Structures are given as C-alpha cells and as structure tokens.
Amino acid sequence: MSVEQERNLIKCTHVYKSFQTPTGEHPVVNDFNLQAKENEFLVLFGPGQCGKTTLINLIAGLDNATSGAIEINGNKVKGPSPERGVVFQDISLFPWLTTMGNVEYGPKMAGMSKKSRREKAHHYINLVGLQGFENSFPSQLSGGMKQRVGIARAYCIEPRVMLMDEPFGALDAQTRYLMQEELQRIWQAEKRTIVFVTNNIEEALYLADRIIVLSNCPATVKKEYVIDLPRPRKYVSPEFLSLRKEITSIINKYVVSEAENE
Amino acid sequence: MKKKFIPQNIISVLCGIASIFAFVIFWFIYTNGSTLGKMIPRPDVVIISLFKDIFNPIGQHTLLIHVCYSMYRVLVGYVIGSIVGIILGLAMGWSKVVEAIFSPLFRIIRPIPPIAWIPISIIWLGLGENAKIFLIFLASFSNVTLNAWTGAKNVDPKLIGASQMLGARKSQIFFTIVLPASIPQIFAGLQVALSSCWGTILAAEMVRSSEGLGWIIVTGGNNNDMKQILVGIVTIGIVGFILAVIMRKLEAVLCRWNKSGT
Asked: What pLDDT sits at residue B2?
C-alpha cells in the first residue's frame, strides 16, 4: 500500500505543445515536467492565458502533445479514457439529461445495470449535496449546483485522476468559497489524485497539497510549493495569511522580472 | 411557478379569439348587401355551407372525406420523407464521407420546389396516389434533411469531449449525444416540412385529382362557385392550424429540457 502511494500516478516529461497560426508556430506549453502521487491534490497556478487549459486537455487525452510523454500509472496517454475524470470550466453538462441522467451517464456507457448505476449515482449526488434535485434539468439549476453535478458526474466513473480546469472560475465570490469548502470535504471523503487549475492564489492555498506555479505562455514550471497546513484550512488563519503573503510576493517578483525581460 | 402563467395564457387566448371575431365582423360588414357581397359570400353563409358540407357531398364525397384524402397523402409522404431525411441528415452531419458523397447532389435537388416535379411524377407514377405521395416525400425530405444535417454538424464539441471522457464509444456518442442534441433542430425542420407538404398536396390536387381539398377549390373555380372555394380555403386554414398545434405540443414534450430556467 505504501509503495502504491509513493508511486507517481501522473508523469509528464518534456511535454511540448504548439499550435500553427498564420504568423507561424506558437508554443503554448514548453518543456513541462510534472509528477503527481496517488491521492495528491495538485494545483496548477498561473496567470490568465498561459496554456493551463491546454495542459489539462493534454493530460485528459482530448489533445495530443507535439512532443514529450504523458503517462498515467505507467501507461502512455493515447486518448480520452474514463480512468481520468474531467470537470470542465464551462461544465458541459448534457442539457437533455437530468441530474441523475448526467451523473449515471458514465456507468451507463460502461454497461452497468440500471440498479447498480442508480445506486452509485445516488451516492455521488448525495456526496455533492444535491439530493432532491435528481430530476432537475441543468437549465433549472444555479451555477454552483451545475458545477456540483459536473463534479458528481466525473466522480461517478470512479477515475484514478480528476482533472479540474478552473471549475469555479465562473461562479460569484460567495459561491466560490462555498464550493472550495465543498470540494475539500468531497476530496477528504473520497480521495482521488486531483489536478486543479486556477489563477486564484487563495483558492490554490486553500485546496492544494502542492502548488505548481506556471509561467505565462508558453506554460512551463516556474516554482513549486508544498503546502502542509492542516485541513480543513481557514482562509483567515495566521499561517494561511503569512503563506499567502510569502507566495504572492515571490510570484509578483516573477511577474515583474518577466515583464522587464520583455 | 406554473400558476403565474395561467392568467397570461387566458389573455392571449382571448386576444386571439377577439381578433378572429373582429376579422369575421369586418368581412360581414363589407359583404352584407354591398356589390362586394355579390362576388364574396358573407361569412355566415360560408360557415353554414361548411357545416352542411360535412353531411352533403361535394362531388363524390363529403367534406370530411376530402380532408381525409388530403391528410392521408400528406401523412404517408411526410412520414416516409421525414424518416429518410432524419437518417440521411444525421449521417451527413456525423460522417465526413457521407457528407462528401451526398451534399453536392442534395444541394442541387433542395432548391427545386416540389411542385416542379408534378409533371415528372405524373409521367413516372401515373395519376394515382403514388405520384402525390412522391411529391409530398420530396417536400418533407429536403427540409428535414437540411435541419438534421446542420443539427448533427453543430453539436457542441465540448459535449462530445465530455462524453468521451466519461467512456462513451463512437456509436454511443452518436446515440446519446449527437441524436438528442439535434432534436430541437430536427423539430424545426419537421414543422417547416409539414407546412410545405400541406401546400404541395393542394397544388398537386389542383393539377390532377378527383378528390381532396385542392380539388374542392379547383372545381369551385371552374363552376364559379365562390362558396365552395371559400369552404375549401377555410378548411385548409383550420386543418393547417391544428397540425401546427399538434407539432408544437409534441415538441414541448420531447424537448422539455430545451428551455431556459423556469
């Protein structure tokens, strides 16, 4: 078991990705290296348009790297697979399916019997706190509730790796705090390896075991922080605030020096 | 929430009845005892003869039998044309190869109005039902194909990505994502197709037929019988209205998810 936990579940080595544009080749990810352990909560933190979504798509298998290797549990990523669950920035729920229909979609595709997939879906709907909304369509749910459905849907295929691409980016500040707390609770209840992308340092500090700071386009690893504050964390505890101050000042330095270099 | 909408519904129904009533009153005033009245019968005369025609035959059949003849031709051609159209359209939207094969041919055939095929259909299929059903088939086929095609082609690629991440195989993606996502678009096509079919059958019956609503109008014209022409026109309007209402109800049931919040 301890061996299992120490093994690197996600391994990215020298990942490079570029897009062809009319003005030539445009690198979005450059020499990106990453290791994530089993059940680790990893946060990719970086400014605006720095290729974070591209990174998530690469790990998800929705897009192919130009060069370099991405391995999950020792297997090379070749395409999308239910061993990796994705919570998308814009949620992408299936609008014609109810909460239940969305959550049970994955097990249904895998051919699970109606009874056991319903049971499973109920479990995850309860986990994200949506009991009573099983028969609502996405258009009837609020932004925060939709994102809960998105999380339950990704959890319901019981993936080894959860990829979350700024899932709370579109929510208002209050709902965002609430969802961060909820996600922490959900993750502690059902541990998974999570790769979480954000551009919000508070969110990163609240959730992460480890924060990877990315440079702006092309994305590459700038710095890494291990956050060992005890959970559940508090946004206003002295340790939290001093860590936040420290990291923010270092990041600002990077941003300033980067701007000067340009 | 539902209760709130009922008064508004009543108001719009009352407005609709009032406007129809006002139209009939104007019709009555202008045709009652005037010279115009010698050319166009009063509304009460038309309505009374419409009810009489339900029991008294026009030509060989009563009015309802004529309606049934027209409806039968429309429904057979419409159902066959729609099924073929949905299958071909979805296949064209889903597969690049099918699209490449059929789209040039389809683009040429689509702009030809169905009534342009009347002479050919008579030469090929004779004067019987087959020629008319063939025309109706064409009228529904091109509308439905076009809509199913665009519907399947414009499915949000993020939804397809989400279903891939949840483990859906290619055929599953087609039946669980592409098909439901295209249904609103297909319904729009079915509605346009139905009114197009209804128009086409009248034209076909006017050209060559011994029963049906188109025949009623044409023989009315030949015998200089304004009453009969107007009975035909009013019946066409009423039947078309009823068909449209049925389609809308059907859409409301099948696409109930496709509404912004309640």
From this structure: 47
Decide if B224 touches A, using CB distance below 8 A.
Answer: no
Q: What pLDDT, on a 0 to 100 scale, did the predictor assign at position A10?
A: 87
* Chain B residues inside the 8 Å CB shell of A105: 163, 166, 168, 176
Q: Hey, where are the domains in chain B?
A: 42-253
Q: Do A110 and B161 touch (CB under 8 A)?
A: no
Token digits of residue A73? 């549990």
Q: How far is A249 from chain B (nearest CA, A)?
A: 37
Nearest chain B residue to A136, by CA = B257
Residue position matching structure tokens 């965002």:
A176
Q: What pairs with residue A35 in β-bridges? A: A11
Nearest CA in chain B to A95: B257
Tens-place pLDDT, residues B125-182: 888 888 889 999 999 999 999 999 999 999 999 999 999 999 999 999 999 999 999 9
What is the DSSP secondary-structure string of A58-85? HHHTSS--SEEEEEETTEE--S--TTEE
Which chain A residues are closer than 8 Å to B167 by Cβ?
Answer: 81-82, 106, 109-110, 157
- Tell me which fold the domain A2-83+159-261 belongs to: Rossmann fold (3.40.50)
Q: Do B260 and A90 touch (CB under 8 A)?
A: no
* CB of B253 less than 8 A from some CB of A: no
Do the chains contact at B262 and A80, CB–CB below 8 Å?
Answer: no
pLDDT over 70 for what percent of chain A?
A: 93
Question: What is the per-residue pLDDT across B204-228, written as a single tens digit (0 to 9) for each?
Answer: 888 878 888 999 999 988 988 888 8
Spell out which chain A residues touch chain B, with contact meaning CB-CB distance below 8 angstroms. 60, 62, 79-82, 84-86, 88, 90, 92-97, 105-106, 109-110, 137-140, 153-154, 157
Options 2.40.240.10, 3.40.50.300, 1.10.3720.10, 1.10.10.10; CATH for B42-253 is 1.10.3720.10
Angle of CA points A194, A195, A196, to nearest 5°: 105
Helix (H, G, I), strand (E, B) or coil at B69: helix
Q: Give the tens place of pLDDT for each residue, B233-244.
A: 999 999 989 998
- For residue A29, the cross-strand partners are A17, A219
Question: Quick one: tokens of B234?
Answer: 């009013």
Asked if pLDDT for residue A4 goes beyond 50, the answer is no
Q: Closest-CA residue in chain A for B184?
A: A96
Q: Convert the pLDDT of each residue in A134-177 to its tens digit.
A: 999 999 999 889 999 999 999 899 898 999 998 888 888 888 88
Of B158, B167, B262, the CB nearest to A90: B158
Instruction: Report how far residue A144's alpha carbon sits from residue B131's, in angstroms, rounded to the nearest whole number.
Output: 57
| Single pTM value for the model | 0.80
Q: In sequence order, what DSSP letters do the residues of A105-146 get, joined into one string?
A: HHHHHTT--HHHHHHHHHHHHHHTT-TT-TT--GGGS-HHHH
Q: Which residues of A touch B254 (CB under 8 A)?
A: none
